[in-house]
Design a protein that fits this description.
The complex is a heterodimer of chains A (114) and B (111). By secondary structure, chain A is mainly β. Chain A is built from no helices and 11 strands. In chain A, strands 2, 4, 5, 9, 10 and 11 form a 6-stranded mixed β-sheet that branches. Chain A is globular. With 111 residues, chain B is mainly β. Helix content of chain B is 0%, strand content 50%. Chain B has no helices and 11 strands. In chain B, the strands form 2 sheets. In chain B, strands 2, 4, 5, 6, 9, 10 and 11 form a 7-stranded mixed β-sheet that branches. A 4-stranded antiparallel β-sheet of chain B has the order 1-3-8-7, with no helix packed on it. The radius of gyration of chain B is 13 Å and the shape is globular. Classes of the chains: A mainly beta (114), B mainly beta (111). At the A-B interface, strand 4, strand 5 and strand 10 of A face strand 5 and strand 10 of B.
Amino acid sequence: GENVEQHPSTLSVQEGDSAVIKCTYSDSASNYFPWYKQELGKRPQLIIDIRSNVGEKKDQRIAVTLNKTAKHFSLHITETQPEDSAVYFCAASGSTDSWGKLQFGAGTQVVVTP
Amino acid sequence: DGGITQSPKYLFRKEGQNVTLSCEQNLNHDAMYWYRQDPGQGLRLIYYSQIVNDFQKGDIAEGYSVSREKKESFPLTVTSAQKNPTAFYLCASSRDSREQYFGPGTRLTVT
């Protein structure tokens, strides 16, 4: 089955700097890669996703890049703000025998200091 | 925050007791999922259901059971066979097997 690894496990950045989180996946048939943000005690919320027919996607200060050959994808947050502090999870889905199943990474705790 | 609800928010049980967690959605989504989240770990899939009256085991189904008698509802029972039931449980639903919407979660403590 699919295996997703996420790095780093914690990331501390100064407000205004950029943050980058990287994930690798094992199943070359995976074709959907969402990123979720979870604030303390809250539900995970989708912030951006990308499908395997696209190499990059941007939404304001957030971008995701996908390298299918290397089987890795990354989340980029620019001009970080204190409200970006949260745990971020990557996930992968789409193998033919796992319809709808998401395999999650272990998460990255992002701390943005003013 | 509407659309998918879980109750209760906090649940306390004694070891050896079965407990059922509720999950309801009014999004008309076909697929529903149950995840378990432990501190410092990602979400692990317990069970999922693509349509009414059908469900599949996820990665950590042992000690859990589910039912899907209605499209809107996907309750999870944590049985006494689950060795370490204390965790944060999240329910999710999706329309097209891609974007999943999560409920607010139930924090279960078993002593």
